[in-house]
Amino acid sequence: MTGDRDDNGKPSMSSSDDAAARRAARRAKLDSVFGDDLPEITKDECGEDHKGHSQDWFEAQRPPHYE
Questions:
Q1: Domain span holding position 8
Q2: Is residue 34 within a helix (H) or strand (E), and if so which, with residue range?
Q3: Is 66 inside a domain boundary?
Q4: Do 44 and 51 meet the contact criterion of CB atoms below 8 Å apart?
């Protein structure tokens, strides 16, 4: 049964547990460096109506070379 424990006497993890732990550690490191600034739900997913500019605003912003 010596194969069931690692060098520190703790039970060894399976390869899938080891891979999951590495992914979790990598994700935690990336989050600590770059943060987690993305919202869970974006504006287009929340069901609110579009509150954009009117057609008059778009026409006022039209460049002269489009005339």
A1: 1-36
A2: helix 15-34
A3: no
A4: no
What's the gap between Cα 46 and its chain centre?
Answer: 18
Per the structure block, which two tokens stand in for 19? 């891979």
CA 34 → CA 17, 26, 53, distances in Å? 26, 12, 33
Q: What is the pLDDT of residues 18-55, one digit of tens each?
A: 999 999 999 889 888 888 777 777 766 766 555 677 88
Cα–Cα distance for residue pair 25/28, rounded to 1 Å:
5
In a domain, 62, yes or no: no
Query: Per-residue pLDDT for 56 more than 50?
Result: yes
